[in-house]
Every structure is written in C-alpha cells, then in structure tokens.
C-alpha cells in the first residue's frame, strides 16, 4: 500500500485518502492545540502560505496521546487553530500516532523514517515528516525543530 492509499478522515469525519496530494511535497505533522509547541502552528502556516502554489501541502493530524494536550475535535479544533494561530492548512480527524492503535499513516511514516537511534515511536507532539513528490518519506524532524529550520529542506524538494 502506498502512502496515497492510506485511508484518513477529515475533521468533519468524512473518509478520504492522501491521493489528493500526489505529485506534491507534503509536510505531515502530529499536532496538539494545547501543547507548548503550539506556537509552531504559525511557522507551519507561513510555510503553507509561502509554498502552497509551488506544490507544498502542510497536513496536520491532531493527537491527544501526549499529556491530553488535544482536547478539541473536528470543526471546533479547526476553528480554534484558525482563530489562535491563523491556520488554514488542512487539519484532519484526531488519530493515534503511537501504541497498539497507531493509525496506518503513522505506522507507515515511522517505519519509513525512524527517529533517534532507530526508534519508530513518536515521542511528542509536532514531530514532522517531509514527503517528496513521489510519496517517499525523506526526513523526520523532532518536535523541537521549528518550521523555519525545515524551510531549506522543503525548498530542495520543490
């Protein structure tokens, strides 16, 4: 199964997949609106605004698995992120990014781009995965790596 075939749900609960983004560079991020890293939403939005017409898709996948820092769901979550951080890039339905109920997307991402010392586990909110135009996961970034530091990697793939 390719990355594009993995089923996801929109923040409205509608079934979808990532085939919409075939041929684009994707930056996939597990987000949480109450996390200390939430200010990164602004940097992600800036990347979205600056590079969307060149083929970048920033995609947020909220997760509540780290200290319950994502209590919101669906449209209320999208509205909160838009009002507080200016987010207009897609935020999908809340998912598990680790553990026995890990979403197939994150199973794929963590297998393709292990973390520190080969770890396949997501350690915290705002872990980022950069995917090239062919659907290959090319780089994983720790939560502490800001969107501004990722920009040069995005530019290379565009």
UniProtKB/TrEMBL annotation:
<dbReference type="InterPro" id="IPR029759">
    <property type="entry name" value="GPX_AS"/>
</dbReference>
<protein>
    <recommendedName>
        <fullName>Glutathione peroxidase</fullName>
    </recommendedName>
</protein>
<keyword id="KW-0575">Peroxidase</keyword>
<comment type="similarity">
    <text>Belongs to the glutathione peroxidase family.</text>
</comment>
<dbReference type="InterPro" id="IPR036249">
    <property type="entry name" value="Thioredoxin-like_sf"/>
</dbReference>
<dbReference type="Pfam" id="PF00255">
    <property type="entry name" value="GSHPx"/>
</dbReference>
<keyword id="KW-0560">Oxidoreductase</keyword>
<dbReference type="GO" id="GO:0004601">
    <property type="term" value="F:peroxidase activity"/>
</dbReference>
<dbReference type="InterPro" id="IPR000889">
    <property type="entry name" value="Glutathione_peroxidase"/>
</dbReference>
<dbReference type="InterPro" id="IPR029760">
    <property type="entry name" value="GPX_CS"/>
</dbReference>
């Amino acid at each position: 199964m390719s990355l594009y075939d993995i089923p996801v749900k929109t923040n409205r609960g509608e079934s979808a997949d990532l085939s919409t983004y075939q041929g684009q560079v994707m930056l996939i991020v597990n987000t949480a609106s109450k996390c200390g890293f939430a200010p990164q939403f602004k940097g992600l939005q800036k990347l979205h605004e600056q590079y969307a017409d060149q083929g970048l898709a920033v995609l947020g996948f909220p997760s509540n698995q780290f200290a319950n820092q994502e209590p919101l769901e669906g449209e209320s979550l999208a509205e909160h992120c838009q009002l507080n951080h200016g987010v207009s890039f897609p935020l999908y339905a809340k998912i598990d990014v680790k553990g026995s109920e890990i979403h197939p997307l994150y199973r794929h991402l963590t297998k393709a781009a292990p973390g520190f010392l080969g770890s396949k586990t997501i350690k915290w909110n705002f872990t980022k995965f950069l995917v090239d135009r062919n659907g290959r996961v090319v780089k994983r970034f720790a939560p502490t790596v800001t969107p501004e530091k990722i920009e040069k990697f995005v530019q290379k793939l565009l």
